[in-house]
Amino acid sequence: MPFIPHTEEDVLAMLSSIGVDSVDALFDEIPAELRARGLEGVPDGMNEMQVARLMGERAEADGTYLNFIGAGAYEHHIPAAVWQLATRGEFYSSYTPYQAEASQGTLQLIYEYQTMMASLTGLDVTNASLYEGASALAEAVLMAVRAHKGARRVLVPRTVDPRWRDVVRSIVRNQGIELTELPYDLESGRLAPDALKNVQWDAHAALIIAQPNFFGTLELVDELTDSAHEHGLLVIAVVNPTALALLKAPGTWGAKGADIAVGDGQPLGIPLSGGGPYFGFLACRQALVRQMPGRIVGRTLDVDGRVGYTLTLQAREQHIRRSKATSNICTNQGLMVTAATIYMALVGPEGLKEVAYASHANAMRLVELLVEIDGVEPAFDTPAFHEFVVRFERPADAVLQALRAEGILGGFHLAPWYPELGSALIVCATETKSAADLERYAKTMARILSKAPSRARRVINRKP
Amino acid sequence: MLIFELSRPGRRNRAQIPTVEQKTPAIPASFLRQDQPLLPEVSELDAVRHYTALSQKNFSIDTHFYPLGSCTMKYNPRGANAAAMLPQFLARHPDAPDDTGQGFLACLYDLQEMLKAVTGMTAVSLAPMAGAQGEFAGVAMIRAYHDSRGDTSRNEILVPDAAHGTNPATAVMCGYSVREIPTDVEGNVDMAALRAAVGPHTAGLMLTNPSTLGVFEKNILDIQRIVHDAGGLLYYDGANLNAILGTVKPGDMGFDAIHINLHKTFSTPHGGGGPGAGPVGVNAKLAPFLPLPIVDKANNRYRLLKEEDLPQSIGRMGAHLGNVGVLLRAYAYARMLGGSGMRRVGEFATLNANYLMTELRKAGFEVAFPGRRASHEFIVTLKRLKADTGVTAMDVAKRLLDKGFHAPTTYFPQLVPECLLIEPSETESKQTLDAFVRAMKTILEEAHAQPETVKTAPHTTPVRRLDDVKAARELDLRWTRPTAG
Predict the structure, then answer these.
(1) Which domain covers residue A86, as residue numbers?
(2) Helices and strands per DSSP (H, E), number in chain A
(3) Residue B466 and residue B400: Cα distance in Å, rounded?
(4) How far apart are CA B117 and CA B104, in angstroms?
């Protein structure tokens, strides 16, 4: 019996103590017509060796690729110590630190995490994390609407990841909150200069600004922040934590700084793992702390005057406030935050900045190599962080498929979300790519594009 | 000591710093950060030692019996962790095409199929990243269903007063008002109150069964009839599925939508508070509204369903596929159990709970529902002990830490005074349960003989009772560098 320790003798002694003659008798309060007759569709059990073999073979068959996809999830080096420590049983198999005295390890670690994230974002406070970036943005939108106490619409540029916009809509829709989308400039790949001109300011609670944006390009965050604040809106920053070692922190945008910053913490030591688990971070100004969703850890003293850590401001939360809670959220992404905190401690301020530099430098080198190829052009003329958009004369999906046959995942196909960009990819390079990797990508691309160019397609896929 | 207090300016961990030749970014200065973020400057050894020492300040399943009611703290098999951390799975980018991940998608598809089989539901989506998000998806689907029929006057969700706080909080997030239904003396939903509450305004009922009171809701078939007759739908909170895994299928009880906490019933690690996973299952009525993505299989190929495949979907719960690593662990666990192993989970979780309840009664403790069978958990009430000695449920919980046991859930459900909600899970042996009973018996004796020892517990943990009022009043949520002098 996998993971059940009972001997026959134990079972008999236990049943006799209870005063029943079979385990089945313990289910006698359940109406007979509800008792399941079997579990058709569930295969027979296997031992660990067999499961390891089954999943090992499936993983093997999937193979490995040289990856240049970013688009919100980034391949970075993860120091070996990160997951060796995070999977220690004391972190891995504990639960939410309700009993603070028995959970000081997790609680102090979250306090350290909160310190690191507050500093990276340049804001006063953060919570103990949310599920992932997109749903963290939805929570930020709900927070902003609560804090604004009037408008129930939020401004969102189309340069914010389209999937994130979809997630926000799914989560806030039923509370009567809507998004107003703002256009971007086709030349620069950032929010259009006149996008804010015709905005009905008093109908909106907040402006969302992504830095870098979904295309990898940099928005004019100072001007945008000031405009929003002048009109009484809150500013929600969407940021990449690696980029924060290099780029201005949201708390310093414009004259007053962004009010809330969110993002996906995955770049900080979390493997890509097919899409999760990651974690979302959420930081804000002190004045908004009681509007924050999720767990928060505070430092306090014990009865002997020793420093200790505990969950605090629980009066916001569902297990206390029930229908009046700030969110239904219960857990954070504890283990992911454990890994991210260890990651940040291992790389330090200098290391994180070097990771950001190296990623940026590799991306800039790669775009140089690619645009030298006939049939490839840069889509935008704006500074970028570690990804960029390139446009092709050939259909991008065919290019991707040809690259894949050579063992390369060439980028994220934009056409389904941004048809106006024509045949375009977002390409990302991080510090994990060597000069040889970049060369290999560019050479393979050149070879693919030199084959069978089609005149007809050239016309169809012209830049709009 | 905090990691920041170990930090020394200029100390670097060179092994973790990439080599960069070009150090001038192609980014104008106005975009760049001027200050250095407050991250520690420590050696790799400093960091490893610090976080190892921190881990040792935690109670965990791997170190202690952890009978936290309603949380199903059972052994998290290491084999499941190893299978989820295969290098190809870890390296997979979420936007990599489906045809580069057929093995990976096969695991997730098989998991969907097994969850359908054990819950008796028609279709499953693995997208929700926690139980609370599963609840959100479930209630949002109920709303989408009513809306799709033009039935827009339903504005109320019914929730038993013993329910988890996430239930009412979720209903509000979905734009509903909440009406609480009282519980009768036997721990069942008060049927007269339910009959009086339902009507054309009822969108649905959220129910946990077995309930948070640790008993099976005997009238479930009548409840579902009453709600369905009024045009409402039923949502099953799968928090307590471990009790009936393989024995009763929520679909057979008449539920229209459910979520399953994989971090409970399918033994994925709780990780100090997440990540979890809360897949949702539905019957045919709600299938068109499931959250995306869903893994589909056709012509022996697996692919992720998108908006065009399921146009009425309530949408996406996150940017990607959900907490995939958790799903893979659950899959490995489910394959190790197989159908008969799953059934034994429910049986032995129930055996352990009933045995522990019996032994604690024999040791002099009062249980909340003495006339009922325990499900996989049960409630001890210390109302009488408090009246006699002044020792509260919280005191007993803290004293258990001194005895080397994690405390049960305290003061939940709120309607039982001075309560401990105790869930032993099936992976604990009789010997561990007996040791717990001995510890509880000792505490009971201490409460009468030397109540101060219990009231001031814990005495052996890294810190003793913390000042929660100070923590909330004088908020200190991050460390700041002490100013010189």
Answers:
(1) 80-342
(2) 13, 15
(3) 16
(4) 21
CA distance A95 to chain B (A): 4
In the DSSP assignment, the letter for residue A204 is E
User: Which string of b and e fits A100-114 if b means at least 16 CB within 10 Å?
Assistant: bbbbbbbbbbbbbbb
* Most B-contacting residue of A39, A130, A226 (CB-CB within 10 A), to test interface: A39
Whether A360 and A446 map to the same domain: the answer is yes
Number of domains in chain A: 2
Same-domain status, A356 and A222: no
Chain B: give the shortest CA distance to residue A32, in Å.
Answer: 10
Q: Is B466 within 8 Å of A302 when comparing Cβ atoms?
A: yes
Residue A270 CA to residue A251 CA, distance in Å, equals 25
Co-location of A371 and A311 in the same domain = no
H helices within A248-326, ranges in order?
A: 318-321
Structure tokens at A332: 């954070």
Give the CATH number for residue A272. Answer: 3.40.640.10
- Closest Cα partner for A299 from B4, B42, B473, B47? B473
The DSSP 8-state label assigned to residue B205 in this structure reads E
**Contact of B322 with B128, CB cutoff 8 Å:** yes
Spell out the domains of chain B, with CATH numbers in brackets.
Answer: 3-55 (no CATH), 79-337 (3.40.640.10), 343-470 (3.90.1150.10)
Evaluate whether A261 touches A119 at the Cβ level (below 8 Å): no
Say if residue A362 is in the same domain as residue A336: no
Q: CA quadruple A232, A238, A241, A246: dihedral positive or negative?
A: negative
Residue A10 covered by a domain: no
Cβ distance B97 to A404 less than 8 Å, yes or no, reads yes
Boundary residue ending a domain (A303, A318, A342): A342
Neighbours of B438 (CB within 10 A): 13
B94 vs chain A: nearest CA distance in angstroms?
Answer: 4
CA distance B402 to B352: 23
Q: pLDDT tens string for chain B (485 positions)?
A: 999 999 999 999 999 999 877 678 899 999 999 999 999 999 999 999 999 999 999 999 999 999 999 999 999 999 999 999 999 999 999 999 999 999 999 999 999 999 999 999 999 999 999 999 999 999 999 999 999 999 999 999 999 999 999 999 999 999 999 999 999 999 999 999 999 999 999 999 999 999 999 999 999 999 999 999 999 999 999 999 999 999 999 999 999 999 999 999 999 999 999 999 999 999 999 999 999 999 999 999 999 999 999 999 999 999 999 999 999 999 999 999 999 999 999 999 999 999 999 999 999 999 999 999 999 999 999 999 999 999 999 999 999 999 999 999 999 998 999 999 999 999 999 999 999 999 999 999 999 999 999 999 999 999 999 999 999 999 999 999 887 65
Chain A CB contacts of B40 under 8 Å are 344-345, 348
A-chain CB neighbours of B152 within 8 Å are none
CA distance B94 to A69: 9
Candidates A6, A105, A329; nearest CB to B56? A105
Domain boundary among A294, A313, A342: A342
If one counts every other C-beta atom within 10 angstroms of the C-beta of residue A80, the result is 12
How many residues does the structure list for chain B?
Answer: 485
* Chain A residues inside the 8 Å CB shell of B126: none
User: What ipTM was reported for this prediction?
Assistant: 0.97
- Chain A residues with CB-CB distance to B103 below 8 A: 57-62
Task: Among B54, B117, B253, select the one facing A34 at the smallest CB separation.
Answer: B253
Q: Is B299 left (phi over 0), alpha (psi -120 to 50) or beta?
A: left
Asked whether residue A210 is assigned to any structural domain, the reply reads: yes
Residues 6+ apart with CB under 8 A from B304: B98, B105, B292, B293, B294, B295, B296, B321
CB–CB of A272 and B94 under 8 A? yes
The answer on A353 and A247 residing in a single domain is no
